[in-house]
Design a protein that fits this description.
The chain is built from 10 helices and 15 strands. By secondary structure, it is α/β, with parallel strands linked by helices. The protein folds into 2 domains: 5-125 and 301-322, NAD(P)-binding Rossmann-like Domain (Rossmann fold, 3-Layer(aba) Sandwich); 127-298 and 330-347, Dihydrodipicolinate Reductase, domain 2. The protein has a 9-stranded mixed beta sheet. A 6-stranded parallel beta sheet has the order 3-2-1-4-5-6, sandwiched between helices. α4 (79-88) links the parallel β4 and β5. α1 packs across α9, α6 runs parallel beside α8 (177-193) and α8 packs across α10. The protein starts with a strand and ends with a strand.
Length: 349
């Protein structure tokens, strides 16, 4: 019988409930030991809902419990310090996206995980969808050839999360739409491309909404006394070693006809788009579109993500989403922001 994996969760907001606690609770051989949140009542409510025995307001107290692993579901700026403390305790870590708000913090997390010989996995559930897994198989079998151009992004028509809360506060979130939802598109497209090495980034950002009262969104809990000091739109052009190029886009508040994911891959033998998955290729000299019959996702990508993490902890395996990959993602995000601020392209070494 597989050993029980004992887990703690730091942060008790919406993502903790939807993506982590509710899914750990479904898995056999997993024991939820405790939940921590600076707002004790919030931690208690989540713990009571899923019958978790202990509640904390100081994450160091949770980390001192008999644990194997933790999920980090805090505001972005706290991801690195909580992870470093967890590795110091010898714990495995599943960290919500973005992995960190700076490349230096992301690198420190990877270094600490290696020193502790523990798993560091970043929560990018998009890789666990059937459509993503199917496209990856096509790519790995060479059906697209060498991918030399990609366009990826998420454009929400009206979707500013928790206006006035930590989501829209730069000191806590590190940024806006790019670091919140653009990070998912970036991770997914880099995974498809095989994580090429970025060498230069040109970026731009736009803040069109500054008044909390005018911010419309369906995520998070608004705070009318808070601020919005982050971008609601960002775009970046990334050049990779070998010449491949990526156009990255993210928006919480775009005046588009409908909210959508933008996803196109262009390779030497074929191309692909997602939502739905279609492969653009050629057969016997004829241009064809191949629409794979992808099985419908019968369980959430969040559940698959958490189950995968637990399995990696139990078996000592490398996770699908690694900390090293998270460093590349964070480096590009940081470069887009730096470029937007300076007005100049950023060269990466």
């Amino acid at each position: 019988m597989a050993r029980t994996v004992k887990v703690g969760v730091v942060g008790a907001g919406g993502i903790a409930r939807q993506a982590h606690v509710s899914n750990y609770a479904q898995l056999a051989g997993v024991k939820l030991v405790g939940i921590c949140d600076v707002v004790g009542e919030r931690a208690r409510a989540l713990a009571d809902e899923f019958h978790v025995p202990k509640v904390f307001t100081d994450y160091e107290e949770l980390l001192a419990e008999d644990l194997d692993a933790i999920s980090i579901c805090t505001p972005n700026v706290y991801h690195a310090p909580v992870a470093l403390a967890a590795f110091d305790r010898g714990l495995h870590v599943l960290c919500e996206k973005p992995m960190a708000t700076t490349a230096a913090d992301a690198q420190a997390m990877v270094k600490a995980a290696r020193k502790a010989k523990r798993i560091l996995m970043v929560a990018h559930q998009g890789r666990f969808r059937n459509e993503s897994q199917t496209l990856k198989k096509f790519i790995d079998r060479g059906k697209l050839g060498d991918i030399y151009y990609a366009r990826a992004g998420y454009l929400r028509r009206r979707g500013i999360p928790g206006a006035g809360s930590w989501f829209t506060t730069k000191a806590l979130a590190g940024g806006g739409a790019l670091i919140d939802i653009g990070v998912h598109a970036l991770d997914l497209v880099l995974w498809f491309m095989g994580f090429p090495k970025p060498v230069a980034v040109l970026g731009t950002t736009q803040q069109s909404v500054t008044d909390v009262r005018k911010a419309v969104g369906g995520w998070g809990t608004p705070d009318p006394k808070g601020v919005i000091d982050v971008e609601d739109f960002a775009a970046g052009l990334v050049r990779f070693e070998g010449g491949a190029t990526l156009l990255l886009e993210a928006s919480w508040h775009a005046n588009v006809v409908e909210s959508r994911m933008v996803f196109d891959l262009v390779g030497t033998k074929g191309g692909a788009t997602l939502n739905p998955l279609v492969i653009a290729t050629e057969e016997r000299g004829v241009v064809v579109d191949v629409a794979p019959q992808v099985p419908k996702d019968r369980e959430s990508a969040y559940l698959r993500e958490v189950r995968h993490f637990v399995d990696c902890v139990r078996r000592g395996r490398q996770p699908l989403v690694t900390g090293e990959q998270g460093v590349v993602v964070t480096t590009i995000l940081e470069a887009v922001y730096r470029s937007a601020e300076s007005g100049q392209a950023i060269r990466l070494t």
